[in-house]
Amino acid sequence: RAAATPSTRMRFHAPSLVLFNPVVCQSRAFRTRSCNGFSSLRTVTSLRGGDTAAGGDDIPEYPTTSESFVPRYNGPPIDEMTDEQRAIRDDIIRTRPRTGISGPFGPWLAVPEIGRPSQELGRACRYRTTLSMRESELIILLTGARHKAHAEFDIHQGEALRSGLTLDTISAIPRDEDFSMERVKSDLLPLLAESKRDVAIAFFTAELLETSTISEETYQATLKAVGGKESVLVEITGIIGYYTYVAYTLNAFNIPFVRSK
């Protein structure tokens, strides 16, 4: 990757969350359509993994990395479920008809006292906040990337594309050992620079994921970007926390990505 000089390097200071400087894009090894009209050098195959999920619903196909995972535990067999487990299972299927019992929900069913509130918390974090679906999916993808949760990232790529995030933006999210605040600043934030709010949300999310805390300057900058509403910061933090829990469940039980019906 070409090194940026002091005069061209983009600095994202938390208090001001300065806007994107197009010069930086010219110095990056990846060039995207978001950068002054450069043709994209990133392709589907350059985004990790051997499998590719057909997009559908007017979204492009996208790469996956966890479809071949062999799960350690998928939850209790249907014929061994208690009435309470069956009731939770039916509720999950009713509210998630496209994906059903996939992701972390199978293992959670083993303990109804965990499964039911987990399902309800997830529904609240996903669908009942004031954040847009695009903003929520950006937070979820950053969370999955930070925790090396390949299934979480795979599951939400399609949702992120449907919400309006581009493949270029998704591919710019640093993953696994590459995840760091510096990589988020240099690779991802320039592609979000048209929206100060997007930059602030991504910066806040990445800082909390990497350092487990938020500096006062980041707190105040993000608060300003979301209109002074601290309830929005609670929502962002809640999504990060919930999808960290999801990521740990997926990783512990080696849960694969399952394509939607």
From TrEMBL:
InterPro entries: AhpD-like
Superkingdom of the source species: Eukaryota
Disordered as annotated region, ranges: 49-79
SUPFAM superfamilies the UniProt entry points to: AhpD-like
Record protein name field: Carboxymuconolactone decarboxylase-like domain-containing protein
Organism: Minutocellus polymorphus
Phylogenetic classification of the source organism: Eukaryota, Sar, Stramenopiles, Ochrophyta, Bacillariophyta
